[in-house]
Task: structure prediction
Amino acid sequence: METAEVTRMKELVQKLNEAAKAYYQEDREIMSNREYDALYDELEQAEKITGIVLADSPTVRVGYEAVDALPKETHESPMLSLDKTKDREVLRGFIGNHKTLLSWKMDGLTIVLTYENGELQKAVTRGNGIVGEVITNNARVFRNIPLKIAYQGRLVLRGEAIITYSDFERINNSIEDVDAKYKNPRNLCSGSVRQLNNQITAERNVRFYAFALVSAQDVDMHNSREFQMEWLRTQGFEVVEYRVVTSENLDEVMDYFAEKIVTNDFPSDGLVALYDDISYGESLGSTAKFPRNAFAFKWADEVRETTLREIEWSPSRTGLINPIAVFDPVELEGTTVSRASVHNVSIVKDLKLGIGDTIQVYKANMIIPQIAENLTQSGNLEIPDTCPVCGQEAKIICENDVEALYCMNPDCVAKKIKAFTLFVSRDAMNIDGLSEATLEKFIAKGFIHNFGDIFEIEKYRDEIVTMDGFGEKSFDNLISSIEKAKDTTIAKVIYSLGISNIGLSNAKIICRYFDDDLDKIRSAKEEEISAIDGIGPVIAGSLTKYFAKPENNQKVDHLMGYLHIVKEEKADNQIFAGKNFVITGSLERFSNRGEAKNLIESLGGKVTGSVTGKTNYLINNDVNSNSSKNKKARELGIPILSEEDFLKLAEESKQIEI
Result:
């Protein structure tokens, strides 16, 4: 249990922060100045006595700070994964007669904290278990990490950074663009913890829950993990909820957790069992992959039967119309679910779906609703032959043995909205302030008909500033973003046009071949484009077909009249020309995969997502692992390179420094 002093400090911090928010942000007073000062003095005195300063204490303000990159750091001791089971009896066998702590397996981002002389010195993410990213700047603004603790020795502990479901919903509800919404709290947490500007982290309400003490210099922990947890609590840390179990009371405790997970406000994907006896647990050592003193229990997928009521058909930018199953609402993993993507026509046919069918649904990884099985398989579903948005012809097209439904109308409004959404996205023209919802409004009002119209939007200023969600400041920010977008590259322009099958990597290869000359690209023959290393007949056909249409060329001419083209720098020695790379696993020498990808592309190479017969190299620091990509590479005889191996190849180019 945390001490009474710490409990009181938390109460004081909450009251004082609520009062300050009401006074400064909401122009209302919920306590007198005298009462505020008295509580403030009490908190300040408690901090002096305990030596603990909580993260959001009004007595200390952590300044916001931006950094250029998150440096990498090797952990003092490797962080292994846990062996796991979905069988309660297997877990009971592991526990046996040993006193064991059973706690939530929180679904966030594991963080290692180091304190020296009573102050937070360092925070590092788990990373690949051996090397993590230093995020100390961000950890200082977590909602509940103590910035100072009473203990003055060197303390290292591990815990989980999480974002609650309620904060996740709050943040997602503030995002208009459906495609920009976060898929789950874990993804949001991971992005929040790894921000380069910790003001964004602070706004996301990230919380930290300690689950393991690694070391505390000269403190007798009485050979007990439970004592460690309670000692951490006395230092001001919030620890993950746990229960003490043996095989005899396991059922009772497991039932408690099973009931609680339904109402928890935080994401959890199971439980963790850890032997209380520290010496015994450490004497067991570990296998090549797992420690032997701990075991994870994963909840079995919760499956519910329901009735299929309809299939919604949702058009996309490319004309692909995605089927979405709508069924009677069911409770799954603590939330109500009534929809699931079916992905394509082939899956609809394989499941033999029909309206009124009894289907089984579940959440893949407890997150994404899926249809597990169709129990009645009526197969009476009719695939539409018209687009649900424009009413024009829709046709089933088969590519790579997969059938999918497409809208054949080039002027479909749904296509336009999705096309403009791609055009303004980060990897394309990178225009902030134009969400899909905003674009839809602008298109409906007739402000924009083609891409170049976006750069003329200022002529509608008077009308836009009166629209819901807009004002003078929002409009000025939008214009500023549009001005910045005018400086771009030909590759980004080609990608932003939304030409079928052409991603940014392919656009870069094509533009590099034609030396960023748009006229040459537009007039190139299909055979010439197809012969470019890394391109092929499908991409070549898409490109030439696009520029064969006069209306497309008119749109591009209109757009180019507003742009200032910057030539992409490239190495003279294109040593990776025609070579395809796949990157997997954590990186150490590069700050992220994008950085490695940019280097490969600058040297003429291409980066793809999956290992195929066309792959030349797989980059994976864990060269000897049995991951699916490593196995595939070995089967195909494709070299697996560590970063060091790859950089030795790259040293042949005089354009980079290793």
User: Anything to note?
Assistant: Confidence is low (pLDDT under 50) at residues 653-658.
